[in-house]
Amino acid sequence: MSLRRRILLKVIVLGDSGVGKTSLMTQYIHKKFNQQYKATIGADFVTKELQIDDRLVTLQIWDTAGQERFQSLGVSFYRGADCCVLVYDVNVLRSFDTLDTWHEEFLKQANSPNPRKFPFILLGNKIDIDGGNSRVVSEKKAMDWCASKGNIPYFETSAKEDYNIDAAFLCIAKTALANE
Ligand code: GDP
Ligand code: MG
User: Fold this and answer.
1) Comparing C-alpha atoms, which of 77, 97, 81 is closest to residue 16?
2) Which of the residues 20, 49, 136, 143 has the least number of beta carbons within 10 Å of its own beta carbon?
């Protein structure tokens, strides 16, 4: 099987500060988890190569600091995005309630030619905490939200336990590829 052209896919990760965006990326790329919180400054990206069928794909994953105002990230940040990953913390209701804003703001800023078809993926992170006893957002509630936005794929993850992250990013890559 010969490999066809190499494809670069730009993925943007958004969500409130502290939900685990940087931890998910670090776990995915480096297989490491750090308990200490280190606020992300500005925007930065990491890359990961994947083979999907006969295609060699480079995922370029952009991290953000959630507390930053959308506008301050600048247009180049959103330009050419192939997929937007939204992250919330299943134990923090507010991080779920702000998803609408992240979703809307992304579409506004990305200026996508076909906003209703732009691929998003939702990750409900930190499902490990307290064995799931402190979660305040149910899987059903999250899936209803995804359905209301045009069937966004949903994954429950733990950056700490490395749970479901490879599966989520594979789906992200495939979704971005389909949109490419
Ligand atoms: P960000 O602001 O969205 O980038 O969040 P961080 O990745 O910096 O994570 C914020 C805090 O939550 C850090 O102390 C992490 O160690 C912790 N954290 C992130 N993901 C998980 C997880 O899946 N489980 C647990 N228990 N803690 C997590
Ligand atoms: Mg961060």
Assistant:
1) 97
2) 49
CA pseudo-torsion sign 20, 25, 27, 32? negative
Q: Is 124 in the pocket of ligand 1 (CB under 6 A)?
A: no
- Number of Cβ within 10 Å of residue 62's Cβ equals 20
Ligand number nearest CA of 25 is: 1
What ipTM is given for this predicted complex?
0.99
Q: Whose CA is nearest to atom 2 of ligand 1?
A: 18
Pocket of ligand 1 contains residue 20 by CB under 6 Å? yes
The overall pTM is greater than 0.80: yes
